[in-house]
Design goal:
The structure holds 2 protein chains of 2 kinds. Chain A is an alpha+beta fold. Chain A is 49% helix and 22% strand. Chain A has one domain (12-186): Muramoyl-pentapeptide Carboxypeptidase, domain 2, CATH 3.30.1380. By secondary structure, chain B is mainly alpha-helical. Helices cover 28% and strands 0% of the residues of chain B. The chains are: A alpha+beta, B mainly alpha.
């Protein structure tokens, strides 16, 4: 069965008469400068940023789920990335890619360098989208950001504190992934 | 075949050769024996098929209609013969052959007292009858190999020839003509005293048992005179068999060939000792040879100290893992009294072999050297190859990543 490709046609509509912008036919949207948003998020705090990002992600996940339908659980990595990345691209959140390091899934978002609020926002958007689309309760942690690429590690909520601890201990993100696999092998 | 037969056959063969060498004269221009009529002459050749049996197809034109010169009907044989040839001429110039002699009786089947030829020609027999008369009967076949004189009918044939000549001429047949015709006659061979064939009398079956018993004694004495002697049986006393057989003494073995003959003693009832096995010589283990101390009897059990140290392992106190009494080498074969020390073979027991001795009183056991059991407990290390994870869907990869702990 051929999987549908992401089609952004008519996804964003500008109603100049009304002065409204619609995204995929959903409600009016506001185009906010990124820097202003990030300051707002920074002022709002981490929890507010996460909630804001979760809401954005759920909407992304819903649209992806609507596009892929019931076959979303069998959708290939390429297809899912295509649709998820397309939605994030419509939001102006950057270009999404997925790296597989062993069994670990690392989401790579290329774009302008983000601050902490921006990273927290993207992590919350991806987490919300996965939760909405695939019904998985996943935690997205920042592994590294370099050269315009933000690498986000998707782990469970149980593993997230350990990874955060390793990261705070200046453990390289590669070592973090290795340790995750060693822990699994010894188990 | 007797000599009489041979002589008669020889004479007959001479006559045949003579007749063949002489020129043959046709019997007659109009003489027909049957078969197809010839073109140039009236003498027909071919098979003697009865003329009456010749048939013609119905649709074929009649022979009369064919433009062929019609021949005059053939005159009867007897008439033709009489008309064309004078009896004197026939008698003078005819050189009868054997076949002609055979034909004559059918041609002139008339009896001896046959009237003249014109009478015969007055009522000529049909041609078919002539042809039929040419066929031989069994009675007319002459057995030239027979010892008996030809049958009287053949003689009458000759007489009939003479009669036919007489019919042509005068009734008194000249004798020379008859003598000339006599060439065809079976001449009686010169009288020879014929003896019965040389053969032994065939035994006659006895009428009764007494006669048979009586005949046995009489016949047993009789010896067939000229019966070929059998290959085996009584040796005749005449001829080459009468020659005496040279009695040459058979060669006897000389004394050198025989040698000195010794008389063996009568066998005794001594029991044989079969329990001692012959020693096996192992040349490859020459270093294992040793000298056994002389003992009174081989059946006596040797002392403990007499056991040799066959191997270095046995020399070593070793037999580290064995009790001293169990570390001795097993002697499988004990040298017999007749055996020398060098030929006595001692086989070192193989590891794990069952203790076996030839003597029950030799309580020996194999020297078993066990391997030192200083095996360290080394846990096996299993190296698993990296499992190549290839998720087929994004959800599968997500689940795998969520399982990382």
């Amino acid at each position: 069965m051929a999987e549908p490709h992401f089609d952004p046609a008519h996804a964003l509509k500008f109603d100049l008469g009304r002065g409204q912008v619609t995204l995929q036919g959903q409600g009016p949207c506001v185009l906010v400068p990124k820097a202003a948003l990030l300051e707002l998020l920074s002022a709002a705090g981490e929890e507010a940023t996460r909630n804001f990002g979760q809401q954005l992600g759920v909407e992304v996940g819903r649209r992806v789920s609507d596009r892929l339908g019931s076959d979303i659980h069998q959708a290939s990595i390429e297809t899912f990335v295509d649709h998820l990345g397309g939605e994030l691209a419509l939001l102006g959140l950057g270009s999404l890619a997925v790296e597989r390091w062993g069994m670990a899934m690392v989401i790579v978002i290329e774009g302008p360098t983000l601050n902490k609020s921006g990273i927290a926002l993207l992590s919350a958007v991806v987490s919300g989208a996965l939760q909405r689309a695939l019904s998985r309760d996943a935690t997205v942690l920042e592994l590294a950001q370099s050269e315009g690429k933000l690498r986000l590690l998707v782990v469970s909520k149980d593993t997230a504190p350990k990874v955060r601890q390793w990261l705070t201990q200046n453990v390289s993100w590669g070592e973090v992934i290795t340790r995750l696999h060693e822990q699994r092998g010894n188990a | 075949m007797s000599t009489d037969k041979i002589s008669r056959l020889q004479s007959l063969l001479d006559r045949i050769k003579k007749n063949v060498a002489s020129p043959r004269r046709p019997l007659g221009s109009n003489l027909v024996f049957g078969g197809t009529q010839g073109q140039r002459s009236d003498i027909s050749t071919g098979p003697s098929v009865p003329a009456a049996s010749v048939t013609k197809p119905k649709d074929a034109p009649a022979l009369n209609d064919v433009a062929t010169p019609r021949r005059p009907p053939l005159p009867p044989i007897a008439a033709a013969e009489v008309a064309a040839h004078r009896p004197e001429t026939v008698a003078a110039h005819r050189t009868p052959t054997l076949s002609g002699a055979a034909r004559v009786p059918t041609m002139a089947g008339a009896p001896l007292g046959r009237p003249s030829a014109p009478e015969v020609s007055a009522k000529p027999p049909p041609t078919l009858e002539v042809i039929e008369e040419l066929d031989f009967d069994d009675a007319e076949v002459i057995d030239i190999t027979s010892d008996r004189p030809p049958p009287a009918e053949i003689s009458s044939v000759e007489v009939s020839h003479v009669v036919s000549v007489e019919a042509a001429g005068t009734s008194d047949a000249p004798k020379p003509a008859a003598e000339h015709v006599d060439d065809l006659h079976w001449s009686e061979p010169p009288t020879i005293d014929r003896h019965p064939p040389d053969s032994s009398p065939r035994p006659r079956a006895a009428a009764s048992l007494d006669e048979a018993l009586a005949g046995v004694t009489a016949e047993s004495v009789e010896v067939p005179i000229k019966t070929p002697p059998p290959e085996s049986g009584r040796q005749p006393l005449e001829g080459v068999y009468a020659a005496p057989i040279p009695e040459t003494p058979l060669p006897r073995p000389t004394v050198e060939q025989l040698g000195e003959t010794l008389d063996l003693e009568a066998p005794t009832s001594a029991a044989l000792e079969l329990d001692l096995a012959k020693p096996k010589v192992q040349k490859a283990q020459e270093d294992l040879e040793f000298e056994l101390p002389p003992r009174a009897s081989v059946l006596e059990a040797p002392a403990r100290g007499e056991f040799p140290a066959l191997t270095r392992e046995a020399v070593e106190p070793a037999s580290r893992h064995r009790a001293p009494e169990q570390s001795q080498t097993q002697i499988l074969n004990v040298p017999d009294e007749g055996d020398t020390i060098e030929t006595a073979a001692i086989v070192a027991p193989s590891e794990g072999s069952a203790p076996s001795t030839d003597r029950d009183n030799l309580a020996l056991s194999p020297d078993l050297t066990e391997r030192t059991s200083e095996v360290q407990a080394v846990a096996p290390e299993f190296i698993h190859p990296a499992h190549k994870f290839a998720p087929k869907s994004f959800a599968e990869l997500l689940d795998a990543s969520l399982k990382l702990q």
